Amino acid sequence: MTQTLTELTIPIITSKIETTIDFETIITKAIDETLATLGENVKQSVYVQLKNNFGIRKEEIYLNIELFTKALEIMFGKSSLLIKIKIISRLHKQVGTFSFKTEKRELCLEEYVAALQAYIDRQNMIYKSLDYS
Prior knowledge:
Blueprint: E1 7-11, H1 23-36, H2 40-54, H3 65-76, H4 80-94, E2 97-101, H5 109-129
Antiparallel strand pairs: 1-2
Helix pairs in contact: 1-4, 3-4
């Protein structure tokens, strides 16, 4: 049985924004924690393959989400969907209110991350326009 993920609602703004959100850190942490669930050796092996076979260093994954997703699909086949779902789940835990809808039947990590980045950029602009000092 296959489940598809078409909508996620994630909380980010409460009554007051405490600080800006660092997109790079959020993505890197979610990916690193997800890969760690596969075991330390597997995680390190994935990072080595990403660097050697796809030219992506760990610190640059957030800049290359599309290529990262393709690399996961090549390395893990259909199981990559589970990894992508876990990444989104971890992002969900790190970021507050964020709503994402897709018209596609299958999960698209690239779309999710692009929408999340746009949301974070907007939240950071709002925070910077408010004077909390």
